Amino acid sequence: MRPAEALHSVARVTTPKAAIYMKQLCRHFSHKWPVGWTDADGWIEPPYGRWDLLAEPDVLELRAAAADEESLERLERVLATHLERFAFRDDLQIAWVRRPGPTATV
Q1: pLDDT in tens, 33-55
Q2: What is the reported pTM?
Q3: CATH classification of the domain holding 90
Q4: Does some domain include residue 91?
Q5: Is 90 part of a structural domain of the chain?
Q6: Each residue of 34-62: b (16+ CB within 10 Å) or e?
């Protein structure tokens, strides 16, 4: 995470396909921005912040970090929109919760 990023949010999305969606998101954005992933976690760094993704057995944890409110809202919206598009057959609930201070990176 870049040091200037001070705003954070987290969404825990219940799905048995957490690892599949995490890898799909990372692969999708890898043609545009720096991205890295393993079987269990990943990160994506668009120019306006960073996403960290953690695939647990039945939960995909999405973490967003940005320097300002507008960028954080954009991160939340873009990642949620893409995940909803990839999981159109599933009824995923994506609810972002704001977190004070730095979050641990994956």
Answers
A1: 999 999 999 999 999 999 999 99
A2: 0.87
A3: 3.30.310.50
A4: yes
A5: yes
A6: ebebeeebbbbbbeebbbbbbbeeeebbb
